[in-house]
Amino acid sequence: MSAAAPSAQPKLRVKNATKAYNTRSGELVAIDRCSLDVKAGEIVSIVGPSGCGKTTLLWSMSGLHKLSSGEVLLDGKPVNGPNPEIGMVFQDANLLPWRNLDANINFPFEIKGTKPDRAWIDDLLGRVGLSGFGGRFPRELSGGMQQRAALVRALSFKPSVLLMDEPFGALDAFTREEMNQLVEEIWMAAPTTIVLITHSIEEAIFLSDRIVVMSPRPGRVAAVHDVPFARPRSLEIMSTREVFDLTNVIKREIVGEQKSRYVRSSDAPVAQSAV
Amino acid sequence: MSETDAIPEFKRKDAAGSDVGISGGMSALAAGPGIRSLSEVLAIIAVAVVIIGGTELLLNIFAVPHFVLPKPSQIAVALVTDFPLIAPHLGHTLVELFAGFGIGAVVGLILAAVITQFPFAEKIITPYILLLVTTPMLALVPLLILRFGFGYEPRIIAVALASGPMVMINAATGFRRVDSGKIALARSYGASTLQIFWKVRAPMALPMIFVGLMVGSIFGLLTAVGAEMVGGGFGLGNRLTSYSSMIQMPQFFAVVLILSILGILIYVLFFLLGKKFASWEA
């Protein structure tokens, strides 16, 4: 699916992104000169050891974080703050518990002061199986339903880029697989550009056109893998030899990187406190 | 969480017949274990009957004079016959309570909303607010009377001083409950600071605000009655001192009863409001 012409301008371009936080124990570099191009309509996953700055990178793409240096370009224009073209899905569903489902989905429109496209939202709700749940409050919905609602909310204002920050990490394996298929289904019906952070290599392989592996902190792009399987993908491909091999390669990259970190931190005991 | 995890939630709700009480921040409002069944309600009434009937009986048997301790029946009679005399005083107390609590609550809420936006200012101001919370404002009433006379003013001021800090300190706790994820969500849609306040911070603080309003209003009632006992010729507190000095104990206890009912009504009012607007916090 990643068949965009090489000359085409990337939908989202991260150029030498560096983000450092000032902490009590000094400056902490979360990501270090990360560069990444995402083509329009592509699904890219970011995997890496925990604490490698994946979330920082994603939040910088969304404009929620300001970079220390480097830049994020959306359609060639720099992203300096929240952008109406970008939708976010957060780690937990992040629904507002005092609002029912309808009011939660209305929330972006209230903030933006625009009118929701009811037909589009009803269509989305139908796709994710939440028609008729508009009056329910988040606590009356299961984790999977909440995350599906969050997905509808993120897509409700038709962003051209969807950034997902470990969206299904809190769900059980079965619900997670369902969600993955749902995302592919929605994406195939209306292709948006998706950047997804995940801890699950399987999820990354199932969903992505490309997988970006990040190094431990300070996060850098360590490797990029193409995922060549045709869409729609079935869950059966997950048990094929190719997927098995790719999973192992990525695993080794992540674990290998971590090992080298331990060697480094034993060389310099001071670094241990930074973990 | 899987699909099935939601089921206990539904069950809990259905079994209780209504919302499962307000836990979390609202738990301070819910006295005891929450929803009661019919038989439990009957048991509560039975206990009241036993206590009231027993008191009546014992006072009769030992022929306790009414100026020592009036019988429940005498109190009831006094409540009915003397109510027209007491009612205006109830009105005065309510005026003081509403005005004082109104001022105190508004100022307290505004202060809480503002200072929680400025952590530095909050650190400086909080000890003084704590001082206001812990100092019995009744102590100031003689001084206030000296300055403002025997009218409404000293009482309203005392009520405001007693309830305001209470509202403030609870509301501030609510406003401080920052859920960075929800704020990030609002920001990702381009929300302004003001929008974040009204659409995220304020609703999130609401349960604690109700706790503050409830505690503050009870404190206000306490202070109003106390201030009335110190000086001035009207109000329920004044009736208490007046009736006791005239050894009209049935009337005295009738006023106490009215105060109890007032307190319960305030509690129920804020409990219901909290349930309506803050029951999402489960």
Strand order of the largest sheet of chain A: 6-7-8-3-9-10
Fold-level CATH name of chain B: MetI-like fold
Return the CATH topology of the largest domain in chain A.
Rossmann fold
Q: Would you identify the CATH H-level superfamily of the largest domain in chain A?
A: P-loop containing nucleotide triphosphate hydrolases
Overall helicity of chain B: over 70%
Poorly predicted segments of chain A: 1-6, 263-275
Could you say how many structural domains of chain A there are in total?
2
Poorly predicted sequence stretches spanning 5 or more consecutive residues of chain B: 1-29
Number of strands of chain B: 0
Structural class of chain A: alpha/beta
Average pLDDT for all residues of chain B? 85
Give me the Rg of chain A, rounded. Answer: 19 Å
Largest protein interface, residues of each chain: A-B, 37 and 29 residues
* Strand residue content of chain B: under 5%
**Broad shape of chain A:** globular
Number of DSSP strand runs of chain A: 10
Report the end-to-end length of chain A measured between terminal Cα atoms. 39 Å
Description:
The complex is a heterodimer of chains A (275) and B (282). Chain A is α/β, with parallel strands linked by helices and 275 residues long. In chain A, 35% of the residues lie in helices and 23% in strands. Chain A has two domains: 12-85 and 160-274, 3-Layer(aba) Sandwich (Rossmann fold); 94-158, no CATH class. In chain A, strand 1 and strand 2 (26-38) form a beta hairpin. Chain B has a single domain (66-278), classed as MetI-like (MetI-like fold, Orthogonal Bundle).
Identify the notable features of this structure and list them briefly.
heterodimer; A: 275 residues; alpha/beta; Rossmann fold; 2 domains; 4-stranded antiparallel β-sheet; 23% strand; disordered C terminus; B: 282 residues; mainly alpha; MetI-like fold; disordered N terminus
